[in-house]
Specification:
single chain, about 110 residues, mainly beta, 4-stranded mixed beta sheet, two-stranded antiparallel sheet, 2 helices, 6 strands, about 10% helix
Length: about 110
Amino acid sequence: MSLDPKVASRLKRTPDGLVPAIVQQYDTGEVLMLAWMDDEALHRTLTTGRATYWSRSRSAYWVKGDTSGHVQHVKSVALDCDGDTVLLKVDQVGAACHTGDRTCFDADQLPLS
């Protein structure tokens, strides 16, 4: 099986075929991370309920939590108005960031001037 053609036709991908995926905790709205998806990763996410991404550094698919145990149970998936970003609302088990932080946006707050 592959991604529903109606969904695939709405996506605006980068030249390498990817779409950014913003990941948010479904019940608090906390932004957890940003990852990348291609059509297959999105298809797997929609059909399994487990967040699946394309790793640009490893050139391979990864299901969040398969190695770390920090699973993302997908509650909903939406496209933005332009079709160039995916929003996943998940129930995050454990840390979302590979550094062990709850979110990828905890550690490096930039000062406002």
